[in-house]
Amino acid sequence: MDTLQTNNLTLGYGDSIIIDSLDIEIPKGEITVLIGSNGCGKSTLLRSLARLLKPKDGQVVLDQKDISQMKTKEVAKKMAILPQSPSTPEGLTVYQLVKQGRHPYQSFTKRWSNDDEQAVEKALVDTNLVELKERTVDSLSGGQRQRAWIAMTLAQDTETLLLDEPTTYLDMTHQIEVLDLLFDLNKDHGRTIVMVLHDINLACRYADHIVAVRDQTVYAQGRPEEVVSCEMMHNVFDMMCDVREDPLFGTPMCIPHGKGRCLIKQAQEEAKQKQHIYSVT
């Protein structure tokens, strides 16, 4: 199975440095989730891992090869990336979208084959989209549409999937639907999955490995229970919270401090106290 790691990786845009001298290794056959505040470089790092962004310094290494020295189709046969909020041409069907995942295997001398068709059909089965394959992508619900894009990456038949915020703009039901699908792909088929998530509690539930990014580098990495703590949430997200054990999964669960109804409850308690004082006097 392919290994994916960075060596002294520095990334940025123009004169701005986003990631500086980063060394990480993505665990094979596991789900890795990148977390961090907005603008910390999570998506930038993911794009670099997929060779969509050239490093200013250092390397991304795939299967002991500098990814910048590999041919595009060679990389595409080993890793598939799903960017944030992808868009499709109007009228494109699910089947037509999933077929695009076979592009790395096509050439002037190698046309559509039975292997390509089988890969597409398997991707549709794995994502439970067979009955929807003739529907246009723009007619699907948010969760169905995201599954269609994931099916396209599965048809690419790679060992590693990179996903940038795959649950963005989805309601809770569809978020769980997509994450359950990725969980099954990892546990049943051994896919290495790297994704960016904003919901820390969902990250803890689904991740084998968490990488917390702060100040252009890795603040902490490891299993969720090793990484997610009150101190980490304060230092990485500048947020005070309680961290308790999730009653269903046993994973860390963050309860952020804030206002909301807690102020209403506090006011009610104060009113009760005053009422008690007046009744006593």
UniProtKB/TrEMBL annotation:
Domain ABC transporter: 4-240
GO MF annotation, one: ATP hydrolysis activity
Pfam families linked: ABC_tran
GO CC terms, sorted: plasma membrane
Subcellular location(s) of the protein: Cell membrane
Principal location listed in the UniProt entry: membrane
Membrane topology reported for the UniProt record: Peripheral membrane protein
GO annotation (BP), single: iron ion transport
Keyword Cell cycle tagged: no
PANTHER family, per database record: IRON(3+)-HYDROXAMATE IMPORT ATP-BINDING PROTEIN FHUC (PTHR42771)
Protein name: ABC transporter
The organism of origin for this protein: Salimicrobium jeotgali
Higher taxonomy: Bacteria, Bacillati, Bacillota, Bacilli, Bacillales
